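Researcher: Quick test of sequence recovery. Tokens follow.
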């Protein structure tokens, strides 16, 4: 059952992403020859008009094959024949739909799990935060000049900041805005630098709060993904932090198992257990969907971001990049991407045995 759920989650993420491309291609009157979910041999196909629809055997991706996208075409409905804005809208639609999926699923999470405000639930009396004047009930507004809306944004900052540098904190107490400076101290128990503060969840009061905090959630996931990429590039985290379909599937399997164990400990009935597992799956899907959106926007050839870069170059230069050069760069990008995919799969499988 876990495997089926994992496959369905991957299928949903791929479908939403590719449907974004497909929908905006149709809206801009671009010919779509094929809409495929999955890779490899087809297990089902249908459609008699312009577009053929395929369900393929390997649930690891998908694609929308548009007229003139990878080859020269003189047809009026070819992708290169359309305006800069039309093409950009088609390319951006895939990642945007992933963010949109994450946003709507986050509303469900916020409504059922609660909100994650920056109000301090506790402050360790021996911590740097306490010495800086922070107390339980204070609401953190800014960290080093950056507005924060979720407590996990503070945790993200702590993980990525230089522990040797002081932190400027703007907070609110009794309706009044105040400022202070704190420096993280090393916690032997946890083996990391910490401020010594903790947050807590708050119950949502209305749908507007669910919507607002869902936006903050997507904002956090985007920031977290960008920070993770930076740490990978700079070597602050190792290769084990990379995760592909196998690693994601394994992580999701753990999420499902842990939710079931929690339900058992709390003596929940079958319907309550199902709902708890379902919410955990949704929460995990939010994380992956937002990550997928960001990663596809990176300016890497063969990804949406790479194609967007070519269109932007055309917009600036006033003429398109020659097709042979674009195909050469894209081909090299595909080869490098396949090498990365093989490495990530090997890394995922290796981590399973650790």
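Model:
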């Amino acid at each position: 059952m876990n495997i089926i759920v994992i496959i369905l989650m991957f299928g949903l993420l791929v479908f939403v992403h590719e449907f974004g491309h497909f929908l905006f291609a149709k809206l801009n009157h671009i010919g779509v020859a094929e809409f495929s979910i999955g890779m490899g041999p087809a297990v089902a196909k249908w459609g008699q008009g312009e577009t053929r629809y395929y369900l393929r055997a390997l649930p690891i991706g998908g694609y929308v094959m548009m007229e003139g996208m990878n080859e020269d075409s003189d047809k009026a409905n070819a992708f290169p024949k359309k305006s800069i804005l039309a093409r950009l809208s088609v390319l951006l639609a895939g990642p945007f739909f992933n963010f949109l999926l994450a946003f709507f699923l986050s509303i469900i999470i916020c409504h059922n799990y609660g909100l994650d405000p920056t109000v301090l639930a506790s402050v360790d009396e021996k911590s740097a935060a306490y010495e800086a004047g922070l107390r339980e009930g204070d609401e953190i507004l800014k960290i080093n000049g950056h507005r924060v809306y979720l407590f996990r944004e503070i945790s993200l900052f702590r993980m990525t900041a230089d522990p040797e540098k002081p932190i400027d904190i703007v907070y609110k107490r009794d309706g009044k805005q105040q400022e202070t400076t704190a420096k993280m101290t090393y916690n032997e128990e946890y083996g990391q630098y910490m401020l010594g503060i903790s947050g807590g969840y708050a119950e949502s009061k209305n749908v507007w709060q669910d919507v607002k905090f869902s936006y903050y959630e997507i904002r956090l996931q985007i920031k977290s993904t960008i920070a993770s990429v930076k740490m990978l590039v700079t070597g602050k985290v190792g290769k084990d932090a990379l995760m592909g379909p196998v690693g994601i599937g394994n992580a999701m399997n753990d999420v499902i198992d842990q939710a079931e164990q929690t339900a058992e400990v709390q003596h929940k009935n079958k319907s309550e257990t199902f709902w708890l597992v379902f919410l955990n799956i949704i929460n995990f899907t939010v994380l992956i969907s937002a990550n997928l959106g960001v990663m596809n926007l990176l300016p890497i050839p063969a990804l949406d971001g790479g194609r967007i870069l070519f269109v932007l170059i055309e917009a600036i230069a006033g003429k398109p990049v020659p097709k042979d050069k674009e195909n050469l760069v894209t081909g090299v990008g595909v080869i490098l991407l396949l090498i990365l995919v093989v490495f990530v799969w090997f890394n995922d499988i290796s981590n399973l045995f650790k």
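The first helix runs from residue 2 to 27.
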